[in-house]
Design a protein that fits this description.
The protein is α/β, with parallel strands linked by helices. It contains 22 helices and 15 strands.
Length: 568
């Protein structure tokens, strides 16, 4: 602090521009200039200005404490360029998703591999920026913004030197009066908070989950004893359990859910044979992969939101307690340190196989065949597909290029009129659903001669231009991003051995459920009920099931109240 009394901080054109840039960007992103009274505009602009002066003032003080002037200049210029670059990203996010950077977007970016990033850019740039759609002006907006920004690297506005203590006091006051409600009005601050909000790296999560398991060691012993004493209750533990986790598949485009085009002929055939059971009202707990699977594959839910998901039992833990050999097969590529749920779960899996180069989903078939040759007495497979994730055009082989823009024109009957590129994207999505039908049914039929049960669901749904110019799943104001397929396939042998379970499945087909209850239904139908862990009110197969439990997407958005009857 003593150093601040003698030290001076330089305020230059970089500072002025960053303040103005953030105030204007936040003003437009908050629709401040649209149908607002002048008094409200002035008050909010004053607070935006106060926060940016306060926050950036503190940042400039910190930089000025570096004694080497050249390094100071380099850091300030780098900071300036980064803030402009990040602001361009936010302009894109706002125009495409109507939101500035938030932890959800950061989480998606960090947990996305290079191929997905390339597909994301290819899909959204081609779909919205280069094809003359509503977003065709975005490149010009960003280009103009960058040019103006770069000019400020050379414009010489008045440079003023203040004693750092004076700037510290002014910045502290400005920061203090505005940080409560207006702290997100600076892009650098949003970046830092979003990065922090993207949660912990998986290596830390693994350590914490292992500590949780260590603390539950005595309870796990009792669970094992309880399961050994369980005579199966007429359902037992089938030697083969398979969970297929799809990606970005909306049930509304599947023939087995009544869609008018034949997008699921193979699953329809299995349904007609009475081996496949289709659940009609299941939604995902979130619209991004990590946020969804952290709930679906663990005992985490909005009711215990104060307990980190990794301090709950997950499906691998419970399978191993029941003496199942666990196998994880993925077409999502090698796991990065930000793939939190996948990396945490596979830490305790017995065998891990993944398609390193992330091609078509059928490329995991040899991996599955290899795993099946090395089975033990009891086996749990978790198979993670790329499913119908964007870019849709790389999610199917040429053989499944069946639907085209003419097909789309026959089924797009709502008020939104598709642009040509959107019709093509939608046709690609339908072809991806058709290909997904081939993959999922193929996996199921590999187990048709065994005593096996197969669960298939998608991590979340997908909006594909149903009522507006948007395709994707990263926002949570659309029912289509939450509505998922959920089906159970059983082999003939399973049907013969456990007819009582088939009856329970049939009775549950029309019950509403959010898929964060999957783990309880899973334990129930397989007779893996463990005192202290199993909750019968959360199992869709139980007579105690609570069908009135609120289905809150991200623990906040009421699906039945706010989404189900909208977006049609």
């Amino acid at each position: 602090m003593k150093k601040l009394f003698k030290h001076k901080t330089t305020i230059n054109s970089r500072f002025y521009y960053l303040v103005i840039m953030n105030v204007v960007l936040m003003g437009y992103a908050s629709n401040l200039f649209v149908n607002r009274p002048l008094s409200e505009i002035c008050i909010k602009l004053a607070y935006y200005l106060a926060f940016n002066i306060g926050f950036l003032g503190l940042v400039f003080i910190a930089i000025s404490l570096i004694t080497n002037k050249k390094i100071q200049t380099i850091i300030i210029n780098c900071l300036f360029i980064f803030c402009v670059f990040f602001a361009c990203i936010e302009i894109f996010l706002y125009m495409q998703f109507h939101s500035l950077m938030q932890p959800l977007f950061m989480d998606i970016f960090l947990s996305t591999n290079f191929n997905e990033t390339k597909e994301f850019l290819s899909f959204y740039v081609n779909a919205n920026l280069l094809e003359g759609g509503d977003m065709s002006y975005i490149p010009y907006v960003i280009f103009s913004f960058v040019v103006i920004s770069l000019l400020f690297l050379y414009i010489k506005l008045p440079t003023i030197c203040f004693y750092s203590i004076h700037i510290f006091i002014i910045s502290g006051i400005c920061f203090g009066v505005s940080v409560g409600k207006y702290k997100n009005s600076n892009s650098l601050y949003r970046f830092i908070i979003s990065l922090q909000g993207a949660k912990l790296q998986s290596v830390n999560i693994i350590v914490k989950h292992n500590k949780f398991l260590e603390s539950m060691k005595d309870s796990i012993k009792l669970m094992k004893i309880a399961l050994q004493n369980n005579n199966g209750g007429g359902g037992g533990n089938p030697p083969k359990i398979i969970i297929i986790v799809g990606e970005s598949t909306q049930r509304g485009y599947m023939g087995i859910y009544g869609f008018s085009l034949p997008t699921t002929p193979n699953l329809q055939r299995l349904k007609d044979s009475s081996n496949l059971f289709v659940f009609n009202d299941i939604v995902s707990p979130a619209t991004s992969t990590n946020a969804s699977l952290e709930k679906v594959l663990t005992m985490s839910s909005y009711e215990n939101a104060n307990t980190p998901w990794y301090n709950n039992f997950n499906i691998i833990d419970l399978a191993k307690i029941a003496n199942y050999n666990t196998i994880w097969i993925s077409n999502q590529g090698a796991f990065g340190k930000y793939d939190r749920i996948a990396t945490s779960l596979i830490n305790n899996v017995d065998k891990i196989l993944f398609n390193k180069y992330v091609g078509l989903d059928e490329e995991i078939f040899p991996l599955l065949d290899l795993a099946m040759k090395e089975e033990k007495d009891k086996n749990l497979y978790i198979i993670h597909l790329s499913g119908t994730h964007w870019g849709y055009n790389v999610r199917y082989s040429n053989k499944y290029k069946v639907f085209d823009e003419i097909s789309v024109s026959k089924i797009q009957q709502n008020s939104y009129k598709l642009k040509p590129i959107e019709s093509k994207n939608k046709a690609d999505y339908l072809n991806a659903v058709l290909y997904n039908d081939f993959v999922v049914s193929n996996i199921m039929e590999r187990f048709k001669d065994d005593n096996a049960i197969v669960f298939y669901f998608s991590d979340h749904g997908e909006e594909v231009y149903e009522f507006r110019s948007f395709a994707g799943h990263s926002i949570s104001d659309s029912r289509f991003a939450a509505e998922i397929p959920f089906v159970i396939y059983v082999s003939d042998k399973y049907k013969q051995l456990y007819p009582n379970k088939i009856e329970l499945i049939k009775k549950a087909l029309n019950k509403p459920q959010m898929n964060d209850d999957f783990i309880y239904s899973f334990l129930d139908i397989l007779d893996l009920r463990i005192d202290g862990v199993f909750d019968s009110t959360r199992s869709i197969f139980s007579k105690d099931y609570n069908a009135n439990r609120k289905r809150l997407i991200y623990g906040e958005i009421d699906y039945d109240k706010d989404l189900k009857i909208h977006n049609r």
